[in-house]
Amino acid sequence: MNTKILILCAAVAGNACAQNAPAAAAPATPVAPIVVSGTVGDDAAKAALLARLRTVYGAERVVDQLAVGRVTTPPNWNEHVARLVGPNLKLVTRGQLQVDGTNISLRGDVASDAQRQQIAGELALALDTSYTVNNGLRVAASEQGMLDAALANRIIEFESGKATLADSGKAILDQMSAVLLRLKDKRVEVIGHTDNAGSRAGNLSLSQARAEAVKAYVAAHGVNPDMIAVSGEGPDRPVADNRTPEGRARNRRIEFKVGQ
């Protein structure tokens, strides 16, 4: 039979890699393991592949489940596989690289379509024409992108001069709450902004109170309040011209920022 190996990697401990590795083999470190399994033809091939993985990912992350057995390898197979394990594989999260003879399959999440094309292209260039690469990478929506898409440039409205949410503002926050729940324990900052009408001190206080009101609303819808920070910027960070009604309306806004 053809030689076949499988390399699994995850973004965080407890994802795909840990689920495929025996509990006793999982490393005690908080970083995700890189699990390599399957059968290779000899001890030299096994040692070379493990050395390459340890160079790219670090020795402490690599979990060895490789076996040595009687398998048939294509010409220069060891060298081709070594070239597959490059630094750009670290851009893939919740990933799986499967090498079955001359068939290569790569799955997992990347940050952009440009990364998706770059990684798959580099894999193809590392191989000769006898190999086939199946690009199963997908672009994962960023956490900040999820929040921005849910807000969709809409304004969370309040009663004039107050920190009381309008019905339209509540409707938007119902949708935002659903997205915040999907982020689980990711910290998010809610930032209040105002236009420049009135005193700066009054606007700072109002923007803070409105941010607090947003936090209270989403917390009432199941979002962990400990993961929500609030701040009020008042009129200090306008995004439009305060000399027009339209500009002032755009400046009276709530922002959601995913923490670093």
Q: What is the CATH first-level class name of the largest domain?
A: Alpha Beta
Mean pLDDT: 85
Helical fraction equals: 25-40%
Taken in chain order, the helices and strands follow as: EHEHEHEEHEHHEHEHE
CATH architecture of the largest domain: 3-Layer(aba) Sandwich
Folded structure, characterized:
It is a single chain. The protein has 260 residues and is an alpha/beta fold. The chain has helices at 16-20, 43-57, 77-84, 113-125, 143-151, 167-182, 200-220, 245-251, and strands at 4-9, 34-40, 62-68, 93-100, 103-110, 132-139, 188-192, 228-232, 254-258. It folds into 2 domains: 4-139, 3-Layer(aba) Sandwich (hypothetical protein tt1634); 143-258, OmpA-like domain (60s Ribosomal Protein L30, Chain: A). It is built from 8 helices and 9 strands. A 6-stranded mixed sheet has the order 3-2-1-4-5-6. The protein has a 3-stranded mixed sheet with strand order 8-7-9.
Short characterization:
This protein has 260 residues and is α/β, with parallel strands linked by helices.
